[in-house]
Design goal:
Helix content: 55-70%
Distance between the termini: 45 Å
Largest sheet: 3 strands, antiparallel
Strand order of the largest sheet: 1-3-2
Strand content: 5-15%
Order of helices and strands: HHEHHEEH
Shape: globular
Structural class: mainly alpha
Radius of gyration: 19 Å
Length: 118
Amino acid sequence: MSARMHLSAAQGSQQRADGERLAVAVEVLGLLADRTRLALLQRLGEGEADVGTLTEACGASRTSVSQHLARLRLAGLVTTRKEGRRVVYAVRHGHLRRLVDEALSVADHRIGRLPPHD
């Protein structure tokens, strides 16, 4: 295989990897683009919680909260563990917690008309 062909194959592989990466990012952002799920993730960013606590925190019905949590769990964004008869939920990793925090910071800046910064 010539060097040119090798580089071309590597670029094609990189483009596929970038495409997959972008697709997964779109999926994650799509899951965050729901008020209830964003509220759930915001509360879970503060620490573990059960469905009752999460229902109070986001103001949605218990059924709705359970359905949103199931969707987040299936997407791999939250984890669960049993504590007796209760199921306790947690954010899977800090990247997601920081993403939610940053989205809310952008909202704070827009609402408060604060200047942009890095």
